[in-house]
Design brief:
Elements (H helix, E strand, L loop, with lengths): L6 E5 L2 E5 L6 H8 L19 E4 L2 E4 L12 E3 L6 H14 L8 H8 L11 H8 L10 H12 L9 H12 L7 H4 L15 E5 L5 E4 L2 H8 L24 E4 L12 E4 L23 H12 L3 E4 L2 H7 L6 E5 L5 E7 L6 H10 L3 E7 L14 H17 L9 E4 L5 E6 L5 E6 L6 H20 L30 E5 L10 H15 L14
Helix pairs in contact: 2-5, 6-13, 11-12, 12-14, 13-14
Length: 534
């Protein structure tokens, strides 16, 4: 405390004043100091790790750290690391494909940078333990661990990559514009809230369905009067009954949260063009219909000044789209019925058409279902489920009941390339892809590994509890069931020789890997299989 009674701390070597109004350290870093490498992915849950900084050299999640607690202490953000160390981490993540959208990597660098020193072998057990405090949805963890190993070795793979070609592959796989480069790994991916003008009003959702306004984020949240969401003790359960019939194989899935890291955000000047909520990547289709840009324009015009619109993690879960649940039955000859649950207004036309292309023997039917928002824009929605049922029924027809490990599964994306996934007895996942012109092997590999990660979670652990009225009960990042780094198997990716234009392949990997993991789980009829007594 200073002589005048104020609180001070040092941030990246500069002494700064701390507010005494209950603000968090994250509020100070982003809103007061404009340090945008520190990301807000779940505030105030403290569960995603995107806002990690060092306090006196130790990693700490800043969104749940009261600013007053760091009085007289030294805070280091990614911006405050030595230039050569920061650049080494950025280059390592780019060289391994350990950063895709780049929203999570600044916090991960701060976490791993506390245990991995350049030129000293990386302690992998500590790396994986450290990653348990983070959520990465894109990369499947493996490439991040490889980046830590590269930093520890003090040597990076030879450069010379065409990063423009890498960005084209990333854009193709993510189905939204994406840049590739060291700046992205350092959090400079062009995220909407990072570019908002100083002094803009802040709008956050309130319990009435409208927005509360404040001069900064902390004030807006106080005005909204919202209570932090919790994790329920309810098991995520498939909401649809099976279609009537005699089936050799059945599948029921639950509501699934896409779990993209950057919460929906936008800002706009009065009469201006609002910032797009997709900063650097496609959010797995979860933001295709995000309303935040329109809301930012409307509020800016109403108040006659720039307005930032920010959703909290709880807002994303309550308002954002879920993967539609399905219930299907199929015979070993490939004929069957797949019911897709969707609230009124959700267009299933293209999804059903794609499902019919990959599983022509399935009759795909819509079932009106009370529940949260749903979208078939999410990764391979509906057609992946159809492909999984068809491929696994084919295996069942040949091999019969029982455990099916080491059985390769092939899936072709109706609009892209194809993938073949084999889960070996030792747990290793072998992926072969036909993607046309590869463009960039590192990015292709990263997307394939990330797809395997999502498939594993989808089959085994991911889902959100929804009550009979359609209200989502699980509102925290840790309740989504995303597979942690320590539970991720080793994935080997091999592109097959091919020519022609580049083709999207990661969705095919997602579907084929899901089928392989389901086979390994003994074709348990309900997903997620964890907690289902299988």
């Amino acid at each position: 405390m200073t002589a005048d009674g104020g609180l001070r701390c040092t941030v990246d070597g500069i002494e700064v004043a701390l507010p005494a109004d209950g603000a968090t350290l994250l509020d100070v870093l982003r809103d007061q100091l404009g340090i945008h490498s520190v990301k807000d992915g779940c505030s105030p849950q403290g569960q995603c790790g995107c806002c990690t900084v060092w306090v006196d050299g130790a990693p700490r999640v800043s969104c749940v750290t009261p600013a007053r607690r760091v009085a007289g202490r030294e805070v280091t953000t990614l911006d405050g690391l030595p230039d050569d160390v920061r650049q080494l981490w950025a280059d390592a993540l780019v060289s391994t494909g350990g950063s895709q959208c780049g929203f999570c990597t600044p916090g991960i660098i701060m976490r791993l940078g506390a245990v991995v020193s350049p030129g000293e072998p990386a302690p992998i057990d500590q790396v994986e333990r450290g990653l348990a405090a983070h959520l990465c949805r894109c990369t499947g963890w493996q490439t991040i661990v490889e980046a830590a190993e590269a930093v520890g070795a003090g040597q990076l793979p030879p450069s010379g990559r065409d990063l423009d070609a890498a960005a084209r592959r990333a854009t193709l796989e993510g189905q939204a514009t994406q840049r590739v480069g060291p700046g992205v790994a350092l959090g400079d991916g062009g995220f909407a809230d990072d570019s908002a003008p100083v002094g803009a009003l802040v709008a956050v959702p309130d319990p009435t369905g409208g927005y509360a306004i404040g001069s900064d984020l902390a004030e807006a949240r106080r005005n909204a009067g919202t209570v932090q969401g919790r994790r329920s003790t309810v098991t995520a359960a498939p909401p649809l009954p099976l279609p009537a019939g005699s089936w050799d194989l059945t599948l029921q899935t639950s509501w699934v949260e896409p779990a993209y890291l950057e919460p929906d955000a936008s800002w706009c000047d009065p009469g201006g063009v609002p910032a797009a909520p997709l900063g650097n990547g496609g959010a797995f289709g979860g933001k295709v219909a995000s309303p935040v840009a329109g809301h930012a324009r409307e509020l800016a015009d109403r108040y006659g000044r720039p307005v930032r619109v920010l959703w909290r993690r709880e807002d994303v879960v309550r308002r954002g789209p879920k993967r539609p649940p399905v219930a299907g039955g199929i015979r070993v000859d490939g004929t069957g019925v797949l019911h897709v649950g969707a609230p009124p207004g959700v267009d299933l036309g293209r999804a059903i058409e794609a499902a019919s292309a990959v599983a022509p023997g399935l009759t795909v039917e819509r079932v009106e279902l009370t529940g949260p928002a749903a979208s078939t824009a999410l990764r391979a929605a509906v057609w992946a489920e159809a492909a999984v049922l068809a491929r696994c029924a084919s295996v069942l027809g040949v091999a019969g009941p029982g455990q099916h490990v080491d059985v390769p599964v092939s899936v072709a994306d109706p609009a892209g390339g194809s993938a073949r996934v084999r889960l070996a007895a030792d747990g290793t996942v072998d992926v072969e892809v036909e993607a046309g012109d590869v463009l960039d092997l590192t990015v292709l590999r990263s997307y394939c590994i990330g797809s395997v990660h999502q498939a594993l979670g989808w089959v085994t652990s991911e889902g959100v509890a929804v009550d009979a009225d359609g209200t989502v009960l699980d509102l925290t990042v840790r309740s989504f069931g995303v597979v942690p780094a320590r539970a991720m198997p080793t994935v080997r990716v091999r592109p097959l020789p091919g020519d022609g234009p580049p083709r999207r392949v990661s969705d095919a990997v997602f579907a084929a890997a899901a089928a392989a993991f389901w086979l390994a789980a003994g074709l348990a009829p309900k997903w997620p299989v964890a907690g289902q007594g299988t």
